[in-house]
C-alpha cells in the first residue's frame, strides 16, 4: 500500500502510526520512519507498508539514533482518550494522551542534532481545544512553535469527503517556506470553538499564530449506502435481536423510522446505542441517522461502541453490525488494504485512525508547498 514516489520526494515520519493511514494520505511523500506501541496495529502497519522502517514500542523510549535520516514532516496522531469529551478528561497529564510529551521530547532531541522537521502536525479530537481549560491546547501550540515555527490549527470534518461524521483537530507548525495564511479565521475550518481557544492562548503563543488557508473541499458525492457490502455477504441480526434493538428507539427516533418506512423506498441508516438522561434516569437508546452519513467510528471497547447498519424497505427493517471493510471505506482506505483477521481488531484499527482524504487535503494545501527545499539547498 506504500505510495511509489520519487527519490527526491519530501520525507515524513509517522508517529502513533496505527495502520499507516496518514502515510496513505501523504501522496507524493516518502514515509521514512514510523512508530506505534500497539502490537496489533504494528502488525497491520508492517503488512501494508513493508518497505517503511518501523519501530514498535513506546515513543517515550525512542532515542534520536532510532530515527533514521532527516524528515521534512513529523505527523503525530497522538492518543485521544484523555482528551475526548466522552471520557474522564485527564488531559495531557493522563496516562494515554500524555504520550504526546514523549513525542515532543524526541522532536527536541532531533532538533538538537539539526534533524528537527520543519513541519509538524498533531492530530487529535476537538476536545483538545477545551481540555484543561485550554491549557492543553496552549501547550501543544507552544511545543510546535519551538524552533521558530508558525503555528495554527484547523478543525476538519471527514464528512466533507467521506460519508462519516468525524470532526478532528489538526495543529500545524511550519517554518521555512510557509503556506498561505489568511488575516482572520474563515469557515469551515476555523470554527467558533477554535476561535475561542485561540483567544485564550497566551500572548507568547499568539505571536507565532497563523490562520492557515485551506481550499474549501469539493461537494461530497458519496453516501453511506455507497460503501456498504452487498446484503447477501453480511450477517444480519436475528428477528428477536432486531426487535430488542428497535425497542430502544426514543419516540423521536421511532417517528423518524416510521417516516422512512412510509416512503416505501430502500433507506439506509447508521446507528449507535447511547445512554441518555431522561427524567433523571440513565436510559439506553438506539439512535438512527438517515442523512447518508455514518456516525464517527469508535474503537469497539464494548457493544455500545459498535456501529449498527439499518436497512429499511417498507415494513421490513433489518439490522446488522458495520463490518471492518466498511469501516475502512469510511476512512477512505482502498479495498486492497490488508485488515486484521479479527473483526474487533479491524474496527479498532479504523476507529483510532485518521481519515485518508483529510490528510491528502492538508498535504496538498499546507504541507507540500515548500517542503524539501531545505534539503535541495
Characterization of the model:
This protein has 377 residues and is of the alpha/beta class. The protein has two domains: 11-218 and 353-376, Vaccinia Virus protein VP39 (Rossmann fold, 3-Layer(aba) Sandwich); 230-322, no CATH class. The chain contains twelve helices and 13 strands. The chain has helices spanning 21-25, 39-48, 99-112, 135-145, 192-199, 203-206, 239-246, 251-263, 324-330, 343-351, 356-367, 373-376, and strands at 11-15, 30-36, 54-56, 73-76, 119-124, 150-157, 167-174, 181-182, 211-212, 266-278, 281-289, 308-313, 316-321. The strands form three sheets. Strands 3-2-1-4-5-7-6 form a seven-stranded mixed beta sheet. A four-stranded antiparallel beta sheet has the order 11-10-12-13. A two-stranded antiparallel sheet has the order 8-9. β4 (73-76), α3 and β5 (119-124) form a beta-alpha-beta unit. α9 runs parallel beside α10. The model has no long low-confidence stretch (mean pLDDT 90).
